[in-house]
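Worked example 4.2. Below are the chains of a multi-component assembly; read each line carefully before continuing.
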Amino acid sequence: MSPTRSRQTIRVLLVDDHDMVRRGLSVFLQAFDDLELIGEARDGFEALSLCGQLKPDVILMDMVMPRMNGVEAAGMITKKYPDIRIIAITSFEDDQMVKAALQAGATSYLHKNVSIDELGEAIRKAWAGIPTLSTEAAQALIHSATTPTNTGLTNRELEVLHLMVAGQNNPEIAAALGVSRSTIKTHVSNILAKLGVSSRLEAVKFALERRLFA
Amino acid sequence: MNIPASRPAYPLDNDILLQGILDHTPAFIYIKDLQSRYILTSRMSELVFNIKNEDIQGKTPHEVLPKEIADIFEGHDQVVVATDSVQEFEETFCRPGHPPFTLLTVLFPLRRATGESYAVCGISTDITARKQAEFAEHEQRTLAEALADTAATLNSTLDINEVLDRILTNVERVVPHDAAAILLVGEDRKTAHVARHKKRPGTGEVQPLLSAQIPLEDMHRTNDLPLWMKAKGMEWVRSIAGAPIVFDDQLIGYIYLMSAAPNFFQPAQIERLRAFANQASIAIRNARLYEQAQELAAFKERQRLAREMHDAVSQSLFSATVMAETLPRIWNRSPETVKEGLVELQKLTRGALAEMRNLLVELRPKALINADLGDLIRQLADGLAGRTQVVVELKLEGRRPLPAEVQTAFFRIAQETLNNIVKHARASRVLIAFNNQPQRVSLFIRDNGCGFDIEAVPPDRLGLKILQERAAAIGAVLEINSQLGEGTTLGLHWENPQSQVVL
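Applying the procedure described above to all two chains together yields the following structure tokens:
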């Protein structure tokens, strides 16, 4: 299909649940003669149905959206329309999401601090099949590849912490894992020490903040 | 064996016969003259009082028995002599250093043929074992009832103080004492303080303990009086009983009972106290789990809100940046777009600023109480206008401080309603009217969005139930009207009870 890729304008579909972001990006597309806005969608569902009608070249898509999020939508769109290139663009710093989006078939991953020239260039490159990663996304990938949990917790300690997050107390955790209460006590104090916190509640907060079990 | 109808032919010595019967009966039988001197006693006296028969005869109880016992015996003798009739007594004897024992005694006068009484006869059965069994059964029942009552309280309330007070009341039924206190170990794990206390009316004070920070190592000393019990004003305490409250193998407190009598508490009573300490542990555990769950829920909620708002601000600023970068480049090409863009840019930045302030309100709840409610609602409206294409019309009237809970409820209801509009309504216009008058405060929010079928939406969806609860909590009236395709209106009205009192 490469001959069609030599066409002059790149047809772009915007997908974002924030009205203002779509508004800003639609203005941005007017600044470049080779980029053309062909439609807007406010969630993954709308994007999926518009793809059939409009056949965009590139989709600029937010990741966190109601009804169907960007990762799910990317997976379905690339499966059904392999020629459509997807650029994920988000304001979230989330290691897991970068990986998930790329695995779902997104070509590029950008953060919402990108300049309009970088964004224009990323759209052209994506159209040609060349990925672009924002610095944050690249760091996130390296980070998630090198330090899986970054907490130093053993698998067993992670299990215990998970149950603590679920609101269980020591006897309940001991029963759930089939070990003695004193074993759990040791695990809990090791967890507190490794996370550098002084109470169970803080450990749970830590786990929630880092989204260890999200 | 057949007993012959007639007297046997061989002679009987009455005294020997009597002594023989007395010596082989399991009861303690005695005959005293009217001056309470023992004339005849069965051998049981040796077993009961450890005195030989021959040492008793001719003596009064006061001459051969300890005073506490003799007083009871002679007292009862006098009743029989005075009334000249048969009497039954339960005689319980408590002497320091001896186990208590109880006799069931029948006392009756012995009469001559003329009818006048010349002596008193007593037949006593030792019912100590039966009494002990009854007493133990009663104590067990009281303990079981007291524990069951506490357990019921445990299940019916999460108010820790209510449960601890109930524990103290129930301990009183089972282990008598003059005053009681429940101490809890502080966060520092080095000292404890009195969490709840109770005392019998008319007994010594516990006031001096209430403000005390008690060192942990001193708490365990229950054999002799711990130092903190010797505080000024606590001199009346002569003995204490204590049971540790343990939770997850960690000492979290103590129940103490105090008495003005020395050596007052028995080991069995301390054992019972432990049962209550265990219940206190469960109560404290429940309360702390509940608190933690509350705190955790609040923390999760704050985090969610902060994330949502941070997201909203980031989106607005990203859009503003993109526009600000783009507009100069299309200045000549499409001046109309540039003009519109500049208006939107202004709306975006103002919206972002409002969202930042809203975020601050979330992170610092005091800001929510101290600010004027009208200003807060303007902030919410600006935030909405900044992050959506919705045209927001705002009417504010009246500025006056409101009770914190009223202010919070109005703000949260407005915030939740506007969030609902963004998420669900797909509206292009929203009207927000807020009127803050001395007698009446009202909020009115109307959108022209898709609306919903109120009958079809379960009350817990869309957070409608929470809105109603928030309104009900301050005694306000909340009305929501909506129809599919017709938009939604919300009215919230609060009458100021203060102003009605003035009228």
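Take a moment to check your reading of the output against the notes. The interface with chain A takes residues 248-249, 285, 289, 292-293, 295-296, 299-300, 303, 311-312, 314-316, 318-323, 325-327, 329-330, 333-334, 337, 341, 344, 348, 351, 386-390, 423 of chain B (CB under 8 Å). Residues 14-126 of chain B form a domain with the Beta-Lactamase fold (CATH 3.30.450.20).
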